[in-house]
Each structure stands twice: as C-alpha cells, then as structure tokens.
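Q: Two folds, back to back.
A: First:
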Amino acid sequence: MAHDWNLITSIPPGASVAATDRFLAPLSSRENITLLPLMLLDIQQYGVAPYPLTQPDYLLLDEEDVWADLVQAQSLAWTALFASNMIPRFRTLLAEGNYGIIAREGSAFLLEKNKRQTTIPPFSFEERGVEGLTGGLTLDRLGSVKLVTDITDR
C-alpha cells in the first residue's frame, strides 16, 4: 500500500484523474475523478447513457484491475456488447491525450497527459487477449476476492 500512496501523492490536488477500482477509495476526496473502465466501455453503469472519452490530467491504473474489468465486461449482459471496444478505446485515449508513463510500482502505472516521450508498449492486459473469455469475481471462505476465468492459462 505504501507504493500506492507514492503514486497517489504524485498527482497534484486539483488535477483530474481516471483510475481503476484499486485507487478509487484513496482518491475519493478529489473533485474530478473518473472510473477508467466505464470510460473505456463507452457506456455508463447499467447502460444508461454513453460515456464520453475525456482526457483527464492523469491516468492511474493497475494492470490486474483492468484485466479483471475486461473479463467481467465479457461476462455481463449490459457490458458484453461494448467489451471488445475497451482496449482500442484505451489506445485512443493514450494517443489523443499524448500520455506518458511517469511512474510505475509493480503492476500499477501513473500516466500524465502531454508527457509522451516514446511509444507506450502494450500492457499485460492487452497482450492476454479477451476474445471468448468469461469469468468474474468470487469470494473464498476467508472473504478474499479472486478473479476466476474459464481459461486458466492466460
């Protein structure tokens, strides 16, 4: 968690942020925060309206969070129609915002708008592929959340 805090405190207080689930609670006091997976889906929760692809000042993502969101998007009725667009929209977001990676801690990345110096290589969730993949989250008997998929070798 100390590594998360280093990434979070690197973001100026007034900056807009799109983040994955792992970072929402610590960022919740900010005025302008967006859930990155919904932005990538291009649809608001439960499909109520389109979700515009904005360009926040910072992107804070955990590769495993994005992977879990991709798996779940393939599995839920209201997101399945949009799931195949998530990775292309992610790449569009990176290109249009000219994002560059400014910090990394394990599977977590902090990207800043207009900071690209080189092409950003594929993230692990992009390389795994999601075609035909289904799954979701489950709780073990100790209450720990675990991602399960129907394909274990990805």
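A: Second:
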Amino acid sequence: MFEFGIKNVRKSVKVRGVTFDALKEDESILNNFPIYCLHIFIPGPMVVDETGTDKITSPENVYFIIKQITVASLIKAPFIEQFVKCGSLQAFSYKSKIRQEDFIALLPTGKLILYLNQNIAQSLLIKREPCRRLKKSNKRQRLDFQRNICPQSIRSYFENEGYDSLTCEPQHTCNVKRDASMPDIDTKNFDSSQVDILMEWMGIHICGISLESDNSDNFLLHCPEQIDNLGSVGRKPLKINIYEGFFDIFQVRILLEESKKLLEKHSDIPFIAISITGYFESFTFRKELKFSAEDKVTTLLITPELKCWVINLSF
C-alpha cells in the first residue's frame, strides 16, 4: 500500500498579445532557454504541404554529448578562441543539479559561465567572485552565432582531447487524428481565463489520452464541465508535429514561418499552437543569465489574422 501527499500547485499565468512580426524578432520570448522539444498543433484540414520538418531535422542541427568533460578543458585557450569568443557554440552541463555549485554554460553570446565552489576554483587557479544580483536590467545582447561553423569540428576537438562523445540527431514524430475534440477558446479575445482549457487540451493530445469512455485504456476521468470545455465546439482533424533535440531561436522561427504559410493558405484552420519546452536543468536568459529550475515552457497561440498570444506559466 502506498501513501501519497497531494497538494494543489498554483501557477501564475502570463498572457501577452503581440503581432506576428514582433514575435519573430523578440528574443526575450523565443530565446529564453535551450530548447529540448517543439510541438506544433495544426487543427483543421489534413495538410501535407509542410516544409519546416526538413529544415529542423537537417544535419546542421545535430548535437553532441561529451562524456565526463573537465572544467579545465573548457578554459584552455584553443577552445575559447575557436568556439567561445566567436559565439558559435551553445552548451550546458547535461544532467547536472543546477541548485548545486559547479555548473557550466556556454552562451550563444560568446560567454563562458562557470559556477564553481571554492576548492575547484582554487585548483584551477581561478579567482572566485560571488554572484552579484543585478538591480537593473541590462540591454539584451543579440545572438552572434557563426552559422558556417561545422558541428563536427566541435566533436572532433573533444575527441582529439581524449573524450568520448555521443552524436545525437533531431527526431521528428507526426501524430494525426482524424476526429479530435477542439478546445472552447476565443482566439480573438484570448486571456488568462482560457489558458487552463488550452493547456489541458494540448496536454491530453500530447499524452495520447482519450476523452471517450469507450476507450478504457486511455480514458481520462473528468468532471462533466471540464469535458464540455474541451470538446464543446465540435471536432476537427488534428495534426501534431513533435521535434526533439537541442534547438534554439532559429528552429522556432522556422515553425512560425510554417504557421504563417498554412494559415494564409488554409482558411479553415482555426488556430495553430506551438509549445516550446526547454531542458529542465539549464540556464534561463531572461533572469540575467541566472540558472533556474523553474518550468521552461512557452506556448504560442497564432490566429488566422496572425495575432499571436504568448503564454508563460511559473510557480
């Protein structure tokens, strides 16, 4: 027998309306954290004329896990000159506990950030300074990626230094539902009161949960009011493209352009929703390069009029 302590976790919801063009250029929205997963929900017609998948899963977007790397290897002059100063690399310590010390991040702005305890800092002959809390917000630095760098050169560098590496490729999954329930939301007057309905609808379809009682394996037990909100506006075909990998602002912009083309071509698409999920234990740009274990999830809701709603949840 198991005992569970159950607590209702309340989150603050931030909903902001922006134009499509402003959203594409807003790095404070699209570049908050290293991205692990992208979901794009396309309700309406069974569209097949998509071009974004090939770009997102292209060989240019491979990424690497370098095993058992040392801090000393990251402060060597050749590594800093080749990959850090030019702003051609983004990385963070994978599966590390960010609430502990000894956390490392390479930012796309060309900065190398080291959070080290006193003993390790002294062994590396690095002067350790306390983390200063910034009282004033600094002007955001623009990304300065050098896109012509070959990703394989990063792996080759570490392999020549004697480290084992694992090459990872972006993965794409497509889920098609020919008769899916639609959420009861008003895309023209969207606000925080409708966030729960939209987020629950997206979560149900991501997890493959059914609202139909005859599907006993995946049936989700809900109160009648919740089921009504999730399916009271009828049913439509639904296509969900899922991308997993190590992404950044460039891949999100590809999905935004894809959404714009689809909405302009297909008048019967009621909206397109994009979910951006970051690596849990990674840095967060919007907090002056602080590291946080907060939810790293941003949802974009795009209407046929190209009005965009940005949804952020936080504890």
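Q: And?
A: The longest strand covers residues 235-247.
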